[in-house]
Amino acid sequence: MSTGTAANALSATIAGIGFWADGLPDWATARAFATDGSRPESAPSRPSPQLLAPNERRRAPGSVAVALDVAQAACRDADIAPETLPSVFASTHGDLGITDYMCDTLAADPTAISPTKFHNSVHNAAAGYWTIGTGCTEATTAISAYDATFAQGLIEAMMQLATGAPAVLLVAYDTASSGPLGTLTHSEGLLGAALVLTRDGAGPRLTATLRDGTDLDLPGPLGTQAQANAMAQMLPLFDALATGGSRAVLRAGPHRTLSVEIDGARADAQS
User: Fold this and answer.
1) How many Cβ atoms from other residues are within 10 Å of residue 31's Cβ?
2) Average pLDDT of the chain?
3) Where is this region: Disordered (predicted)?
4) How many CB atoms lie within 10 A of CB 123?
5) Which of 105, 134, 141, 215 is 20 to 30 Å from the Cα of 168, by its Cα?
6) 15-203 sits in which CATH class?
């Protein structure tokens, strides 16, 4: 995709949206908060993805729980069977709590490493749970690109559409940091969102173009609410979608931005 060249822009239609943030456990409540500041009277403290069996649901780390929850919500919203979708899972850090546990235990008592936590420490853990739980045999990709992770995940998903996939699931999420890692890469709370993107359809149409520069929009309501989470980088797009905005600018790498034009306001909300 050439810098700033409209002829080389990527496009996609949003068929479904899933969202979870602390205090805003779905896209409907996130939209309400972004438009009028309202919040639900009570909200769960943690996602509870029904894709997992009850025992697995309780044991799943926050990164897996939020990723699966928003992925399922986006597929329901799109009314597309999840097992038919190739997927892109984007996370800045994976699960920082587990990474901190692994480092601490390896330094203090290496033989005490929990096999379950080791299993969940890999960056594509959420993608693995998703493909197993849904029975999906389509391709899945796990991406990390620091503060450009969401933009690069969106580019990857849109490239897959441009090269033949009829629909792609994009899932983005991050967790809170802890321990010494938290002093180097700070992140708070739990945040995740998912988009089912299609080549055609009746939803909002995205057109994305890479540009040189570093200028970003000021945070909107959702961006302000969850700005301390490492995946807050995705929230300019979700603020625009929630409020009927026509454009969002995302950080796409050193001295690069991804300009996303939005054509068509979304008329309904995922419940």
Assistant:
1) 24
2) 91
3) 35-57
4) 16
5) 215
6) alpha beta
Model pLDDT, residue 96: 87
Would you state the structure tokens that stand for residue 211, as one six-digit string? 């540009």
**What count of Cα atoms within 13 Å lies in the side-chain half-sphere of residue 184?**
7
The single residue listed with the structure tokens 């025992």 is 55
Higher pLDDT, 73 or 178: 73
What is the pLDDT confidence band of residue 265, given thresholds at 50, 70 and 90? low
Cβ–Cβ contacts within 10 Å for residue 207, how many?
16
218 alpha-carbon distance from chain centroid: 20
Q: What 3-state class would DSSP assign to 196?
A: strand
Rounded CA gap, 217 and 235, in Å? 11
Q: Residue 265 belongs to what H/E stretch?
A: none
96: phi then psi, degrees, rounded to nearest 5: -65, -30
Give all strands of the β-sheet with 167-174 in edge-to-edge order. Answer: 140-143, 87-90, 167-174, 191-198, 10-21, 205-212, 256-263, 247-253
Contact (CB, 8 A) for 183 and 143: no
Kindly tell me the burial class for residue 194, based on how many C-beta atoms sit within 10 Å of its own C-beta (0-12, 13-18, 19 or more).
buried
Check whether 5 has a pLDDT greater than 60. Answer: no
Over 80: is that where the pLDDT of 4 sits? Answer: no
Residue among 163, 150, 123 nearest 1 (CA): 163
Could you tell me which of 223, 143, 240, 146 has the C-alpha nearest to residue 184? 146
Tens-digit pLDDT profile for residues 103-156: 989 999 998 988 888 888 888 999 999 999 999 999 999 999 999 999 999 999
